[in-house]
Amino acid sequence: MRPHPILSNRNNLGIYSLAWLLLISIQTFALVQLFHFTWLYAAVDGLVYGVLFYLFGIGYWFFIRFQDLEHTSRLSLTIEQGTSIIVIVSIWVISGIYILSAIFIDNKEINDFLWKSISWRYTNGFLMFIVLVLFYFLNSYYHHIQIKEKKEADLQRTLKDTEINLLRSKLNPHFLFNSLNSLYALIQTKPENASDMLLELSDYLRFSLDQDYKNMISLADEMANLNRYLNIEKMRF
């Protein structure tokens, strides 16, 4: 199960929190300078929408975490996420309006402004949530790549281990080392026999390494290799 990219990472949580504070500050300043509201209302408005965005933004991850990025078409993904953003932004805007209306219930000017500001709040909400969704998808894609690379590395390691084990199963180390020792002794005592033993040993090893034991082999080939083995043992003893 993929961890939450913000809650599970202190750096991401810090950046997300700083971005949230910056958005609250910008909205507060804009309400004072552009719409000439008091600092009290501007701060409360910015805080309400900022907290809602902070919570909805963290919760939106659960719309994405179970998305299958490999097997879902881009069109379906775009439609699904577009619909989700419309729903979440609508909830964000309307929730903020009702909360602020309840706080400033006796202020008709503020209540009129809240309903008139729906259009630009929707625009701001879409832009902010689109940026957040892109971050979530990039994080999911990066996490998916990491898991894929880890699986490939594990598979390569398993293949190497399998190759080594297969090589060991085809070669008897004791037989090989003993044959080499005997070959060394023959070179010292009977050099004329050493070349014969070397040829037998090389043919025997070549057959053992090249042969795929998953396939059937002829009895003649198996008997020929068995004779090579016996010839080597005769020369050794």
Brief descriptors of the model:
237 residues
Secondary structure: elements and pairs:
Elements: H1 10-35, H2 39-59, H3 61-64, H4 74-103, H5 108-116, H6 118-170, H7 173-189, H8 191-210, H9 219-236
Largest sheet: none
Report the C-alpha radius of gyration, rounded.
37 Å
The mean pLDDT is 84
In helices, the fraction of residues equals over 70%
* Gap between N and C termini: 63 Å
Which word captures the global form?
A: rod-shaped
| Beta fraction | under 5%
Low-confidence stretches: none
What class, by secondary structure content? mainly alpha
Helix and strand run: HHHHHHHHH
> How many distinct helices?
9
Total strands: the figure is 0
Kindly describe this structure.
There is one protein chain. By secondary structure, the chain is mostly helical. It has helices at 10-35, 39-59, 61-64, 74-103, 108-116, 118-170, 173-189, 191-210, 219-236. The radius of gyration is 37 Å and the shape is rod-shaped.
